[in-house]
Structure to design on (65 residues):
């Protein structure tokens, strides 16, 4: 990451017919690795990777104490 540029986040899903059996969101590089692993592990199932829209969070996340 450089400055305020964030790596895009992708949503990886493994499908059994019309049912999602695994779902994972991560930065693009990790999502690609996960998708490749799932394709090898579940060779007969469909694996999709979709980009998620960027979030516009201007305030930092709250920390609960």
């Amino acid at each position: 990451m450089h400055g305020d540029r964030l790596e895009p986040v992708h949503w990886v899903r493994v499908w059994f017919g019309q049912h999602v059996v695994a779902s994972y969101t991560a930065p693009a590089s990790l999502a690609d690795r996960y998708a490749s692993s799932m394709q090898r592990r579940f060779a007969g199932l469909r694996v999709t990777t979709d980009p998620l829209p960027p979030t516009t969070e201007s305030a930092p996340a709250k920390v609960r104490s």
